[in-house]
Amino acid sequence: MQQSYEKAGKVDGAVGARVLVVDDDPTVAEVVSGYLDRAGYVVERAADGPEALARADAHWPDLVVLDLMLPGMDGLEVCRRMRGRGPVPVIMLTARGDEDDRILGLEVGADDYVTKPFSPRELVLRVESVLRRSRSPVGSAAPLSAGGLAVDPAARRASKDGAELTLTHREFDLLTFFLRHPGRVYGREDLMREVWGWDFGDLSTVTVHVRRLRGKVEDDPGRPRFIQTVWGIGYRFDPTGTEGTDGHA
């Protein structure tokens, strides 16, 4: 990991955003916090899960950079508990190379992950991307609806048959994108570029978020009516809610 802060430039729109950095390695926490501070963020630090939850309760963050391997309460449990208290974007840090660990982080609601060792400058760019997407609706702010599903991008609220849905920031953006582009097939690379704003990355991120979103908007996620798989290509949103043949991602 680079130890110099010289290349960490200002990030547009970052000034005033509060980022909570949770890592028990003081060197990692110091370097990450230094880069984020230079980029214009208000940074708080915590060394373990209980301290992170206490700091979040005292000053709710705009985003959390969260280490997976924490002493006592691990990052997965911290993420679950934070999700239970309110919506907040989470970027998970992990030293593990096992894909299952990364997927677990996404399954509990992390918006992104970065594998150690990483470039602090790249992490700053990921933070900026996640915050920008969480604060800005995908496309126009006009309300959208189809088949009993509805989203209000300006208010960042979604519902199914009139009942409000509890979605992460990425899930909300993904549903909004699907509603805005019904009937068209998008590959995972397309969705990563259009919804995540990334030109590269681990495509399992898209797969996991589609699966999680299906679990919240479909009556039977195993036989999805709305978010359908087009084998060998990607996904298509069917506004008529015609039952698909298979729900595997």
From TrEMBL:
- Put simply, this protein is called Response regulator transcription factor
- Ranges that cross the membrane: none
Is this entry keyworded Glycoprotein? no
Q: Where is the Response regulatory domain?
A: 18-131
Question: Where does the record place the OmpR/PhoB-type domain?
Answer: 141-239
Please verify whether the record's keywords include Transcription regulation.
yes
Which organism is the protein's source? Answer: Streptomyces prunicolor
Q: Which residues carry this modification: 4-aspartylphosphate?
A: 67
- Which ranges of the sequence are annotated as binding DNA? 141-239
Supply the alphabetized keyword list.
DNA-binding, Phosphoprotein, Transcription, Transcription regulation
